[in-house]
Specification:
The complex is a heterodimer of chains A (200) and B (115). Chain A has 200 residues and is of the alpha+beta class. Chain A has a five-stranded mixed sheet, covered by helices on one side. In chain A, helix 1 packs antiparallel against helix 2, helix 1 runs parallel beside helix 3 and helix 2 packs antiparallel against helix 3. With 115 residues, chain B is mainly alpha-helical. In chain B, 47% of the residues lie in helices and 10% in strands. In chain B, helix 1 packs across helix 5. Classes of the chains: A alpha+beta (200), B mainly alpha (115). At the A-B interface, helix 2 and helix 3 of A face helix 2, helix 3, strand 2 and helix 4 of B.
Chain lengths: 200, 115
C-alpha cells in the first residue's frame, strides 16, 4: 500500500509540476503580449488626435516603429520595457495636438513620388453609384482634402463595398505596402499608378 | 534645398540641438535623444517637429531589414549642414544670455557715519 501511495504521490507531483510549468509559460506569453499591446493602444489613441493626413507619416512611420523598438529591443527586462513603452505612449498622448500643429509633414521623405500616402479617404471596391456619391461628397467645400483618395480595385469582388472616411480610418492607412491594385483619385481626375509591394 | 528659418532657441531646444552638433553627420533617433537629454517623448517630439519645420533637421529611414529585425524601420533625424553655423551661433548667444554675472565685491563701508 505504501508503495502505491508513493507512486501515486510521485505521479501527482509530476503532473502538478508539468501543469505549473505550462501555466507559467502561458502567463509569460500573456504578459509578453501585453508589453506591446497596452502601450500600442495608448499610442494609437494619441494618434487619433493627429490630422488624418499626418497619421501615416507621424504615427505609422515614426511613433509606432520607435515604440516597437522600445518594447522589443531596448532592454532585456520585460517590465522595464513595458514601463518605458507606456511612458513613451502616455507622454505622446499629452502632446499629440502640439506635434500636429507644429509639423506639416505629410509625405514620406524617401518614398518614390508616385506612391500613395496619407489618404483622405479609402474607397473599397465601390459600385458606380457609390463612387459618384463619394466624388460628390468630395466636392463639398466643408470636406477638406489634403492627400490622395485611394480606390481599391483589389477588393472589387466583395459586393459589400465600403467607403471609409477620414473619421473612420482603415488599418490599411498605416501600411502603404499593402496598397496594391489601387488608383489615386485627385478630385475627379483618375490617375492609374504603379504601386510596388513594400512589405514592412 | 530646404529653406532655413530663424529660430529663437529656448534652453530645451538648445539641449536637443547640442546633441546634433556633437557629431553633425550622426543620425539620431527619437528614443536615443530621449535618453541623452532626459526629456520625455511628449516634450522632445514637438521640439523635433519645430526644428524640422524650420528646416534645421532632416529625416530619413533606418536602413534595416524589418523581417530579420522583427520591427519596422525607425525615422532618424540629422542636422542640415546649413543649420550648423546658425545653431552654433544661437547656442553661443544663449550661453552668453545665461552666463552668471561676475560677482560683485561687497566691501565694508569705510568712513561712514560712526556711532
Amino acid at each position: 500500500v505504501s508503495i502505491l501511495i508513493a507512486v501515486a504521490a510521485a505521479l501527482i507531483s509530476f503532473i502538478a509540476t508539468a501543469a505549473l510549468s505550462a501555466a507559467s509559460d502561458i502567463v509569460k506569453d500573456e504578459i509578453r503580449g501585453w508589453i506591446e499591446v497596452l502601450p500600442g493602444i495608448t499610442l494609437r489613441m494619441a494618434a487619433m488626435q493627429l490630422d488624418t493626413s499626418q497619421r501615416v507619416s507621424v504615427y505609422s512611420e515614426e511613433w509606432l516603429p520607435e515604440l516597437l523598438f522600445i518594447t522589443r529591443q531596448t532592454d532585456t527586462r520585460p517590465i522595464t520595457r513595458f514601463i518605458t513603452g507606456m511612458r513613451f505612449s502616455l507622454s505622446m498622448h499629452r502632446s499629440a495636438r502640439l506635434i500636429a500643429r507644429r509639423l506639416h509633414r505629410t509625405e514620406h521623405p524617401d518614398a518614390p513620388a508616385d506612391t500613395p500616402r496619407s489618404p483622405d479617404a479609402i474607397i473599397f471596391g465601390p459600385s458606380v453609384h457609390e463612387l459618384s456619391e463619394a466624388l460628390n461628397r468630395l466636392k463639398r467645400p466643408d470636406v477638406p482634402l489634403r492627400g490622395p483618395i485611394l480606390l481599391f480595385e483589389g477588393e472589387a469582388k466583395d459586393r459589400t463595398s465600403k467607403i471609409i472616411w477620414p473619421d473612420k480610418p482603415h488599418p490599411l492607412c498605416g501600411y502603404p505596402g499593402r496598397m496594391l491594385l489601387c488608383r489615386v483619385v485627385f478630385g475627379s481626375i483618375f490617375r492609374p499608378i504603379r504601386t510596388s509591394a513594400k512589405t514592412n | 534645398v530646404t529653406e532655413l528659418k530663424d529660430l529663437d532657441l529656448t534652453p530645451r531646444m538648445a539641449e536637443v540641438i547640442k546633441v546634433f552638433l556633437e557629431d553633425p553627420a550622426q543620425e539620431r533617433y527619437g528614443f536615443e535623444l530621449m535618453r541623452i537629454t532626459g526629456m520625455p517623448s511628449g516634450s522632445l517630439y514637438p521640439l523635433l517637429a519645430r526644428f524640422e519645420a524650420a528646416g534645421w533637421l532632416t529625416t530619413g529611414r533606418e536602413q534595416i531589414d524589418p523581417r530579420s529585425e522583427g520591427r519596422p524601420a525607425r525615422r532618424f533625424y540629422r542636422i542640415e549642414s546649413a543649420a550648423i553655423a546658425a545653431a552654433r551661433q544661437q547656442l553661443a548667444e544663449l550661453s552668453e544670455r545665461y552666463r552668471p554675472p561676475s560677482p560683485v565685491s561687497h566691501r565694508p563701508a569705510h568712513g561712514g557715519a560712526g556711532w
